[in-house]
Amino acid sequence: MALIKLNNNSISAVSALPSAIDTGKIGQVVQTVKTDTFSTSSSSFTAITGLAVSITPIATSSKILIKTVISYGGDANVYGFAKILRGSTDILVGDAGSASQIRCTFPMVTLDGDAAGEVFKAHVSNSEFLDSPSSTSELTYSVHVSTYITKNIFINRESNDANAGYNGRYTSTITAMEILA
Predict the structure, then answer these.
(1) CA-CA distances (angstroms) from residue 87 to 13, 42, 53, 84, 143?
(2) Are the C-beta atoms of residues 56 and 136 closer than 8 Å to each other?
(3) What is the distance between the alpha carbons of residues 165 and 99, in angstroms, rounded to a whole number?
(4) Which one of 119, 139, 147, 169 is least enclosed by Cβ atoms within 10 Å?
């Protein structure tokens, strides 16, 4: 068996990486947790109220890691879409396809073959993106959603909101993490 050595030390004796290896450091972490509900039936992208995070990078060379976790429900057969914005700028959307295709970050769909039962179900969509804003000004990141054919999409709850043990209330988060260069 070969013995792997780093700087002429056996692996068990290595207590730190050589100084020439840049590991990146976390400058700051900011998170917003949304615990209340939100709904929309708009076919235009609408900001999820209370789900935005602001961060002020300390260097223009910093990158910002954006993570989202969105809990949602919707009417039967909802085709929902979500995208992440920095200020008013889309920062992560799919390539342009046909003229009627929606460019977004991630889908928020309530289809599983049981349309009648879909109103009782909750779903989760996650996203992660490493942004390079080249700025030391305050940056605000937010999540915007839209639906197709004006059906309802609900954040942090199911479509059926009856006071019953099979319904829940959930949380959604957006996290911004500064990665120093």
Answers:
(1) 48, 20, 10, 10, 10
(2) yes
(3) 43
(4) 169
Q: What is the DSSP letter of 94?
A: P
3-state helix, strand, coil in the chain (%, to 5): 5, 50, 50
Per-residue CA distances from 106 to 6, 17, 33, 150, 164 (Å): 42, 37, 19, 18, 30
pLDDT score for 28: 97
**Dihedral pair phi/psi, residue 118, rounded to 5°:** -65, -30
Among 90, 22, 67, which Cα is nearest to 178's? 67
Of 151, 112, 137, nearest to 54 (Cα)? 137
At 7-28, the pLDDT tens digits run: 555 555 555 555 655 557 999 9
Burial call 87-115: b when 16+ CB within 10 Å, e when fewer: eeeebbeeeeeeeeebebbbebbbeeeee
Q: In which region does residue 29 sit, left (phi positive, over 0), alpha (psi from -120 to 50) or beta (all else)?
A: beta
CB atoms within 10 A of CB 156: 23
User: In terms of DSSP bridges, do strands 153-155 and 79-86 run parallel, antiparallel, or are they unpaired?
Assistant: unpaired
Which segments in the chain show pLDDT lower than 50?
A: 1, 3
